[in-house]
Amino acid sequence: MVEGNVLFITGAARGIGFDIAKAFSEAGAKVVLSDLSQQAIVLDGGYTAQ
Predict the structure, then answer these.
(1) Where in the chain are the domains?
(2) Predicted TM-score (pTM) of this structure
């Protein structure tokens, strides 16, 4: 259903935003994470921030 789609998730460093982004990623979507705290995405999620 979401496989191949690109999703832009705001507030994705922690909490519900992060869980939603993770679920869509595991379902095959390409996910762009966005948050005011770039460091939180890197530290909490282990992802590379750009």
Answers:
(1) 6-45
(2) 0.71
